[in-house]
Amino acid sequence: MVEEFLSGTVFRKVTFRLMPFLCLVYFFNILDRANIDFARLQMLDDVGISKFSYGLGAGIFSIGYCVLEVPSNLILSRVGARRWIARIMISWGVISAGMMFVVGPWSFCAFRFLLGCAEAGFFPGIVLYLTYWFPAKQQARAVALFMVASPLTWVVGGPLSGALLDFTHDRGGLAGWQWLFLLEGLPTVILGVVTLFYLTDRPAQANWLTPVERSWLTERLASEEEERAGQHGWTLRQAVADRRVWHLVALASTIAFGISGQSYFFAPLVQDRFASFGSFQIGLLKAVAGIATLLTMLAVGLHSDRKGERRSHIACAAFLAAAGWGLSIWREMPIASFAGMVLAQSAMMSMWGPFWSLATTLLGSRAAAGGIALINAIANLGAFFGPTLMGWSEAAGDFTLGLAVMSLALVLSGVLALCVRPDQQRMDKEKVEER
After folding, report:
1. CA distances from 132 to 297, 339, 352 (A)
2. Tell me, what DSSP letter sits at residue 303?
3. Span 72-93, pLDDT tens digits
4. What does pTM read for this prediction?
């Protein structure tokens, strides 16, 4: 009874203390990374950026991200999440706001590369940080709650970005897209400063928990980590050499490939299907897609935790996403095409909660900081090829080829998920059931 009481009380406190703030931070992370989706509606013609150059610049973000991600996450594990996440946020906020000074394709690509470098380590750093506070049984749920910010960015950020474009254009001598970058980048800098005072690195330092609660949570997580280290006591070098890690890299790459293709091309895809729609109307449709994604992510994350199963949840979502991409090709049927885009986005995003729970279970404490970052860093190369392909497809005059390749990539995701070793899947489930 005492164990159950403490478990309910402590994790409720941890959830309400950390998750709203982390969701807010991640909201601006996605907003500042993907707001070029709306800025391009004005920016391309204003500064002479071609559709192919836009796709290349959207994707080159991932190159900078990939180069610095593993070192960034290793530094986070040494200096603590509070200080390093704050540094990341302030850096990317300044660069994101600085994109208002883009004057052509070269400066556009340069700013995107620098933004990727600045953001490197943020997402895997948060995933690692959540393992400091939540046991394996609750990690998929925690990751899903954190990633709720991504669809919320669509729900709120879509109409916001569309409205900023429409209502700030030519005010104060600036174009709407310049105001967009400025007004969406500066709040991140402010939040970065707040992070220094708000986040707590480890449960043992949490003065917002009682001494009994701190002690119980610290011992609970230490016991779980000791057990995991005994089963997966890898060094980072051993993790790099293990084929299961590269299996996860391949799976994450196909997911990132699909998500990035839609993240940076939702607005032009909608504009192509609904030619009469303005920026704000496109933003409202993005909000509809965000609501559907939010509900799907929560449902899949909760169900995956309840069943203690990851592999089939990832695979089913992948095949649904592939079907959505296929449906979105029907340009002559705008409503059906939009429904396919919503299905693809919802299903793809719902894969991340079970995926990261599977990945963090596989890696022991010594390999987690670098291993999670390694998976995310190399997988982000998929996020380079996704928008680059879509930009090339649009420049060729039709999105069809890009959408078809996206569909095939998600079919591959499903196959890769089903090929996760059954013994690993069974062990993960048994560990969840034991707790």
Report:
1. 22, 39, 19
2. H
3. 877 887 888 889 999 999 999 9
4. 0.79
